[in-house]
Amino acid sequence: IPDYVTPGGVVTQPLKHSIGLFFFFPGTCTALLEANGTFECSLRLCFCFNLIIISNPRLLSKPQRTLRGKTYRTDESKPWVLPVVKKVEKVIVHDDTLNHEYLPILGLPEFRSSASKIVLGDDSPAIGENRVGAVQCLGGTGALKIGAEFLRRFYNGSNNTKTPVYVSAPTWENHNAVFSNAGFEDVRPYKYWDAEKRGLDLAGFLGDLESCPGGSIFVLHACAHNPTGTDPTPEQWKRIADVMKRRKLFVFFDSAYQGFASGSLDKDAWAVRYFVSMGFELFCAQSFSKNFGLYNERVGNLTVVARDADNLKRTLSQMEKIVRTTWSNPPSQGARVVAVTLNSPQLFAEWKDNVKTMADRVLLMRAQLKEKLQSLGTPGTWDHITDQIGMFSFTGLNPKQVEFMVKEKHIYLMASGRINMCGLTTKNIDYVAASIHEAVTTVQ
Ligand SMILES: Cc1ncc(COP(=O)(O)O)c(C=O)c1O
């Protein structure tokens, strides 16, 4: 069974029959053995029956594919341990100076500072002015959680439960829950996705920034917007920043895909760096789940850019209290892997190369899917497939077409039409493209 159930890979129809038979099999054997001792004969029969079904080409001809995954997969549909991570893990295991004592409540200092540097840039004036600090968190989710808890307690006075928190429509589903769970009672959507033109609804976005209550909190995806894969351009970010500055709105960046979107760490951090250069005080939740492939190590960082050094000190001291009652002390392994990598020029270069490998595979799948749809003459424009970036793409398929893909083609995607580009491989892309073509041409 495990061979069939490869994540993101092919699951064949006869699986159901085989499972049934294998479950049935021990009962049959026992019954027959007890009845007349023909155990060996029934054993052979059962094996033959299973083999016939498994090797029947007609039954094998309906491949199922899942494009619903949330993580990176190789062209073989396998998870990928980054070579640089493997290397650093060996270094860590052989380092006799390390132990399993508790880390400081705010985390590993060399992790926190290097993580903040990759998002703000080595030469960030804010770092030079000692007004940048960080909290090591349990993944990007933990960073959002600590930031949300802090804002609910201290953002503007001591009771912020009524302060509106705006999340994009649509957004990563956990944003709503994390902020509500921290006590915010008014989590609202801001306009982001224009389904008609399959792109950013800039006018709607700017309109919501203009009309929201002053001082509202806005969660902005730093790059590779999940789930639409659509980011504002630098010019559009500038217009967004202008309104946010004028209206004194709070910026909470969520950076879960740095490097993954374009293959370049700097390019993917452009928006955050621009806002800092404009003098915003802000939070940035960073996740290293995707760009280091460290999903289960729960490694994230909450970068705090404060007004001044004193303000930073007070903020971190309150965050320390929040962490103490949340997870008390963070885990070390993932943070050590990231810190060792980011603090060595050679390993850092290797990591950037590994990230680029992942980003390039996604870009290749995007280019091939678009090209195949265009050459099939699939109605509609497919430029959005390559205009969007990062792991996810909003295909634009409507709910009925999605249902057709799932039921008739055994291609699994989200009801919203979102696919994970990493579910595509050089082996299944023709089938997926042909199925999209059939969905678009036969189902309205
Ligand atoms: C936009 C966004 N933010 C945060 C996260 C959470 O990341 P982590 O797994 O590090 O908690 C994700 C993960 O899918 C995400 O897509």
TrEMBL record:
GO terms under biological process: aspartate biosynthetic process
Co-factor requirement: pyridoxal 5'-phosphate
Pfam families: Aminotran_1_2 (PF00155)
UniProt keyword terms in alphabetical order: Amino-acid biosynthesis, Aminotransferase, Cytoplasm, Pyridoxal phosphate, Transferase
UniProt KW Isomerase keyword: no
InterPro entries: Aminotransferase_I/II_large, Asp_trans, NHTrfase_class1_PyrdxlP-BS, PyrdxlP-dep_Trfase, PyrdxlP-dep_Trfase_major, PyrdxlP-dep_Trfase_small
Annotated compartments: Cytoplasm
Classification via Gene3D superfamilies: Aspartate Aminotransferase, domain 1, Type I PLP-dependent aspartate aminotransferase-like (Major domain)
Domain of life: Eukaryota
Gene Ontology cellular-component terms listed: cytosol
Domain Aminotransferase class I/classII large: 72-436
Keyword Amino-acid biosynthesis assigned: yes
EC number(s) recorded for this UniProt protein: 2.6.1.1
Quaternary structure (record): Homodimer.
Family of this protein: Belongs to the class-I pyridoxal-phosphate-dependent aminotransferase family.
Name of the protein in its database record: Aspartate aminotransferase
